[in-house]
Amino acid sequence: MAIILGIDPGSRVTGFGIIQVGDGIPANKPKYITSGCIRIKDNSLDLKLKQIFDSVCELILEFKPDEFAIESVFLSKNADSALKLGQARGAAIVAASHYALSVAEYPARKVKQSVVGTGAADKTQVQHMVKMILKLPSNPQADAADALAVALCHANTASGLDKLTGAKGAAKTIARGRLR
Which of 20, 31, 82, 167 is most buried, taking the most CB atoms under 10 A from its CB? Predict the structure, then answer.
């Protein structure tokens, strides 16, 4: 059995999604556990990052994930936005590392390809497919859907299902401070 915590980082809203696969639950039929958004309340950067770190730590303590996956940084036209996104990712990654979870990173295009079938999918398509795959009664909030998509991508990649969908590109895994 593997519980996977997926994170869609953001400096204002960080989405999270937790699914379960294995132990009789195949990767192509994952079980939904929970999802939601960490809404950042503070204005100063240090307090924003602390809130992300603390919230991810709380999720890890409550749900005890075995695996952690996060969307990797993408190039942005706005360097300031990309920097803030990178810092939010860093806070979440440090929380995972604090609890000895290895971190798998996936580019947004691979996440979309894995869940929707095309790397150019928009947010509504991701929401719809996450709802269908996890058999949810309604579409999850956009940031939570993106985080669930990251967790689903990780499950698909770990099981080899990503090869069936044609998703390209390997995940980077950070373990104990090393890329492997």
Answer: 167
Of 54, 58, 67, 71, catalytic? 71
**Out of 67, 105, 143, 162, which one is annotated catalytic?**
143
The 3-class SS string of 107-164 reads: CHHHHHHHHCCCCCCCHHHHHHHHHHHHCCCCCCCHHHHHHHHHHHHHHHHHHCHHHH
Is 46 known to be catalytic? no
Q: Tell me if residue 67 is catalytic.
A: no
Q: How far apart are the first and last CA of the chain?
A: 23
Angle between helices 142-159 and 123-134 (to 10 degrees): 60
Tokens found for residue 96: 């995972």
Tens-digit pLDDT profile for residues 136-176: 999 999 999 999 999 999 999 987 654 444 444 445 554 44
Which residues are registered as beta bridge partners of 16? 7, 36
